[in-house]
Each structure stands twice: as structure tokens, then as C-alpha cells.
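Whiteboard transcription, Tuesday session. T.W. wrote the C-alpha cells on the left side:
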């Protein structure tokens, strides 16, 4: 169900074609919020169009269609946004690996935690690098609050991994 709202949200920010949306998913949402493949986006566009939530606003060469959200689509997106999500399905490969750290020798577990810490640091820095651009947008503008959430999340990941390394070193030695 969230693919529907991810597409509506992206179109609420800016009209686009299926190709444009695929690029936005990869650049904006894919690593941090919601992943969608090209083959999932086009059928969703057809469904949303059939429901009157989006419309074709331009057609280009080779059948390229540019879509925009309709007022009914904005209302549906707003209704969805106002409702706090029920416990959703989480698919986090990092967390899954953490559950099974005991399958590794302590040195290998430590190496994995170091990578986890480094990845958190790199992701947080990448988000901080785009903050000046985001700070020019309104607070409720597209992505500004989400970027802050992302930066804090990755800083937490880095800090937690360092804490876990300290715990492992305390129990097993460095």
C-alpha cells in the first residue's frame, strides 16, 4: 500500500514520467524509505490513473507520459499522511544480521560492527552535505524533515555500533 503513497507523494512534489519516478525513487527514497523497481512503478501509475488520483498532463516521444497528482490524489495522500501508521513490516538487513551476530567469532562480529559504524558515519555525512540546500526550503518542504531524521538515524547507528564494539571488547577483549 505504501508504494501508492510514495508515488503520490513524489508527484505532489513535482510531475513526472514513470522514468522520472524511477530515478527519484533511486535518488531520494530507495535507500532510506521505500524501494520500488521500474516494473512496480508503471502498474501503480496505471492503477492511480484509473482511480482518478493522477492524470496524464503531457505526452512525449515514444509514448512517454508525464503524470501529475489530481486534487483527489492530494486528498487521498493527505488522509493517509494524517493517520499514524500501524506496525508495519520492517525489512532491515542490518538489523537482521545483528540478530545473528552470535554466529560469528568475536573478531568477525567486531569487524561487522565497525563496518556498521562506518556506514552510519558516511550516510550521516552525506546527508549533512546537502543540508545547506535543504535549509533553503520551507520546513515542511519536500525532504527537509526527512533528511534531519535520516542524519540523526545514521548518527544513532554509528553511536550504537561504537557502544556495541565497546561491549564486545569488554566481554571478549579487543
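and on the right, the sequence the group agreed on:
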Amino acid at each position: 500500500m505504501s508504494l501508492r503513497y510514495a508515488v503520490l507523494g513524489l508527484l505532489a512534489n513535482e510531475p513526472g514520467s514513470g522514468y522520472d519516478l524511477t530515478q527519484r525513487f533511486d535518488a531520494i527514497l530507495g535507500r532510506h524509505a521505500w524501494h520500488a523497481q521500474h516494473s512496480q512503478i508503471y502498474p501503480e501509475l496505471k492503477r492511480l490513473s484509473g482511480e482518478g488520483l493522477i492524470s496524464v498532463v503531457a505526452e512525449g516521444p515514444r509514448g512517454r507520459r508525464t503524470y501529475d497528482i489530481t486534487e483527489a490524489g492530494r486528498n487521498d495522500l493527505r488522509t493517509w499522511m494524517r493517520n499514524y501508521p500501524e506496525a508495519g513490516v520492517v525489512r532491515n538487513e542490518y538489523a537482521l544480521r545483528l540478530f545473528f551476530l552470535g554466529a560469528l567469532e568475536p573478531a568477525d562480529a567486531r569487524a561487522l560492527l565497525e563496518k556498521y559504524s562506518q556506514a552510519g558515519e558516511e550516510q550521516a555525512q552525506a546527508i549533512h552535505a546537502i543540508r545547506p540546500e535543504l535549509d533553503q526550503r520551507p520546513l515542511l518542504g519536500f525532504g527537509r524533515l526527512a533528511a534531519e531524521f535520516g542524519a540523526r538515524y545514521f548518527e544513532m547507528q554509528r553511536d550504537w555500533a561504537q557502544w556495541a564494539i565497546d561491549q564486545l571488547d569488554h566481554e571478549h577483549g579487543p
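Someone added at the bottom: Residues 106-134 form the longest helix (29 residues).
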